[in-house]
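Predict both folds.
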Amino acid sequence: IQHGGVQERFGQSFLRFNHPCGIQLEVLEDSSDKRNAWSTGQVTGDVATRGFHGAVLSVREIAETERFFVDALGFRKTGVDGAYHRFEVASGGANKTVTLVHEPDRPAGSWIFGAGTAHHLALDVETDAKLAEQKALYDELGYTDCSEIKDRMYFHSIYCRCPGGILVECAATVPNGFAVDEPADQLGKSLLLPPWFESRRAEVVAMLEPIKVPESNFASVPRKASVAAPAAAPAAAAAAQQGPGGSGPSRRTSAVFIGGDTPQKN
């Protein structure tokens, strides 16, 4: 795998390489990251991957995107290193960091589409009620390119396109999260779909690239019967009806990346 050698940003060493789909990935060294390591027979725990550290997002105009992350999402700006502007939530660090890279000369609309590319940035919020508050906050701040609350079975979410073009999802995990339809110790061992997509399983599987999984991980997990997609959770739907004319959001979103270990609410 070709890479650019060890580099440094914000005092942290990282190695950048390209995924076969073309998207750039970085492996970053962070001694303060105490999440469980994903070790294997070839990779020991002291050097193993621990999950997503953050996201590096390219923008042509940084001021309005910075305002969005600070005012609408509750991030705080914690540093600038050349063209890189770092933002963090809660205690900061791993799984709580977004970096904007200011590229004013990047051609407008030069997004990359294709297998493996990132579609949006997902952030975790605590409850359906807080999710509705977040939607109301978007409205109050004038960010109107925002979806209604979507039911994804494992979580409920809203999507908002920020001024720089980045699509941001805020999601409230349902009780038991991804273990809602299978035991937690079976997660990742077989492909599960929301019931209303089960009838399209063959179509979905045909679009996926093969994943090599050790035979010891294979499991036979019973499927639930197909049902129609439910409406948004009552609490979320009721709160969303208030909008900016109701009591209004009590605070900004409390966000961490959805990825790595089970997200910790802050």
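Second protein follows, with its predicted structure tokens after the sequence.
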Amino acid sequence: MPHNSAIRTDATRRAQVCKFVDTAHSYGELRRTVRGGELSRRPSNSAWRAARATKSVFRFADVLGPDFNEAGLPKTAALFEAVDHDAERVAKGGKHFFSRARPFIASRDVQPIVPKRPGDDYHSYPSGHATFGYLCAILLAQMIPEKRDALFARGREFGMNRVVDGVHYPSDVEAGRIDGTLVAAALMANPDFQRDFADAKAQVRAALKLD
């Protein structure tokens, strides 16, 4: 269950501070530039594309190593599953409020390189993946401050991949960063979450042999 029912679904309205100009043309130029370099060094198989579109805290294993995995960290998996519900609720509130079309709906020149899910044709702002990615980076950095810089870099990549993939505008990702920060602050002020967080932190640090 989500930890903090007091997290307001209209929190993303604060993301109106983003002042990006995301026309289909300017977005397309950015996407072609970034994606060209990205695809030159990434596999193009369908399994990779599906994994790239998956929201999971364990995608941070490329920073934390193979011992950071769902099978060995059940408390951590449960914590971040609940965190995902909280993040999703906030992001959906913003999506319904702004009702911004996805880039590939705004322009036929934009072709997504990851599988589209039901509902992906609509509601681009804010990015739910970016919200979750930044939120995970913030929480993991609290657990493992030794990896703080790398975790935040991975969180940024988690969000910007959605631009490269053709399913979000840069400002969607920036709004997700704001939302992720708001949700993290609300969760860390919740006593129930603090207890579960402490248990997961101990589990992660033991698994990674950091204590």
